Amino acid sequence: MKVGVIGCGRIAAMVHFPLLRAMKGIEVVAAADVSEKHLHETAEKCNIEQEYTDYQAMLDKADVDAVFVCTPPETHFRIVMDSISHGKHVFCEKPLVCTVDEGIAIKEALEAEQRKRSRRLVLMPAHNFIFTPCFSEAP
What we know:
With 139 residues, the chain is α/β, with parallel strands linked by helices. The protein is built from 6 helices and 6 strands.
């Protein structure tokens, strides 16, 4: 599966890129970030050929099956909606949305896009605290 990552900040650099690079069958082929510095450093470190300072350009041009959204929370809704409209599977850092209305809009867009494309799209919100001691020690 070819993946594009939107957002090359601390969480992406520390968590997502290393894990994606270690997974069999996953190839990170594109990255997007508004910071040219973070983008270029990440692309160089992770051997990513396609760099975009505009995630829309990545969605339009890069041959990716899925996107990882690793941007600030207030940007998630728009990026997830745009990714769905491009027929991409989406993994989004938490929180997925900032309002209930945004959540409903994403659900409706996902269902409409799946009907249009006659295939199931996967939307996965990230919750990476599963191994936090208070959760892992809970009965």
